[in-house]
Structure formats: C-alpha cells, structure tokens
Amino acid sequence: MERRAVVSGGGTGIGKAVAARLAGDGCAVVILGRRADVLAKAADELNAGLPEPLVTTETADLSEPAQVQDLADRLTAGGRVDVLVNNAGGSFGVPGEGLAGVAAEWAADVRGNVLPAVLLTTALLSALPRPGGRIVVLSSVAGLRGPGSYGGSKAALHAWALGLARSWPPTG
Ligand SMILES: NC(=O)c1ccc[n+]([C@@H]2O[C@H](COP(=O)([O-])OP(=O)(O)OC[C@H]3O[C@@H](n4cnc5c(N)ncnc54)[C@H](OP(=O)(O)O)[C@@H]3O)[C@@H](O)[C@H]2O)c1
Model's pTM, two decimal places? Predict the structure, then answer.
C-alpha cells in the first residue's frame, strides 16, 4: 500500500523540495500552507514530473488551533499519515520599540515556528502508525547558537521533539 506523507509549508522552498523527493519515492504527499494559489501551482509542477499525480493540497494557518483541528479531521478522513514533515516556519519577529517590541518580536517567532509543529503533530499523532510512523521537524543552526527570537523559537522545537521521541520508543 502507498505510503502517505504530509509536508507543512510544502508549497515553497525546502518543503517543496521535500515533497518532490517523497513523491518521487512513490509517497502520496499532501502539501500544506496558507496560500491556496501557491500550493496549487506547486502541486501542478510536482505532479507534472511524476508518472501519476501523487501531490494534493490543503490550506490552513497552522498557528490557529481551530484551523489545525479542521485540517486534521480532513486529513485523517483520508486514512493514516505515515510521514509528517513539520517544515512550516521562518523568521517572523520584527524588532520593535522597548519591551513591548521585544515581547511582540518573540511572540511572532514562537507563534510562527513553535505552534505549527506542535499543533499539527498533536492533532495527527493518533493517525500515525505504531510502529512505522515518522515525524520530522525542521529546525535551524540558529536553534543551536541564535540569534534572538528566531533561534530561541527553533531551540524550543528541539526540547519538544526530544521529549516526544523519548515518549515513543515503546510504541515504535
Ligand atoms: N532557507 C533557509 O536557509 C533555512 C535555514 C534553516 C532553517 N530553515 C527552516 O526551514 C523551513 C523552510 O524554510 P524555507 O526557506 O523553505 O521557507 P519558505 O520558502 O518561506 O517556506 C515556508 C513555508 O511555510 C508555510 N507557512 C509558514 N507559516 C505557516 C503557517 N502558519 N501555516 C501554514 N503554512 C505556513 C509558507 O506558506 P504560506 O506563506 O502560504 O503559509 C511557506 O510555504 C523553515 O522552518 C525555516 O525556518 C530554513
């Protein structure tokens, strides 16, 4: 049976390259993002290089819990998810005035980098086969040595992902 992968931020950049590789290996791949037009263009491009179309799209803002729950319901209605690639993220924090500016900068990067991975993984955990399910989290060298709120938000993903990994060995 064909494996099924979900790639957040799969319409552009690294996520699109990951989706191309997974689809090239014969996985059915769902690419996620907020912009339907970007996703549709990417799916058309990726499918054009395949013997049969394997790439489909779903839109959601992965920082919004209600949207992630609706998305997870749609995804799990389509069957199990073998591979989840948490790639959506980026550098969202903009330096601002005073402590309020610092708070806003950090909140933007935590919202943009931590919430998509944590919310989507939590919502899809029960759809991953055990053993055999795979979860990948995209960090950055900035998560090891900074700088600032981007590095801090990526570092938060390390602690969360390691905790998740430690809780999984008994179930594979
Ligand atoms: N490029 C680098 O040099 C580099 C280096 C180290 C780590 N990384 C990490 O690798 C990942 C991909 O980077 P990239 O350079 O390929 O970035 P990118 O081209 O900007 O791609 C980010 C993707 O994530 C999606 N996305 C962002 N926030 C989202 C949200 N809240 N909900 C749903 N989708 C969302 C975007 O689509 P929409 O805007 O349509 O939602 C976009 O497709 C990021 O996590 C980044 O931090 C990148």
Answer: 0.97
Q: Is residue 49 left, alpha or beta, with left meaning phi > 0 and alpha meaning psi from -120 to 50?
A: alpha
CB of 143 closer than 6 angstroms to any ligand 1 atom: no
Q: What separation in Å is there between the alpha carbon of 1 and the centre of ligand 1?
A: 30
Count of other CB atoms within 10 angstroms of residue 120: 24
Q: Print the domain residue range for 161.
A: 4-171
CB distance 63 to ligand 1 below 6 Å: yes
Query: In the block, which residue shows the tokens 């938000």?
Result: 153
Give the span between the Cα atoms of 40 and 132, in whole angstroms: 29
pLDDT digits (tens, 9 = 90+) for 152-167: 999 999 999 999 998 8
Number of domains in the chain: 1
**What CATH number is attached to the domain comprising 46?**
3.40.50.720
- 151 in ligand 1 pocket by Cβ < 6 Å? no
CA distance 156 to 159: 5
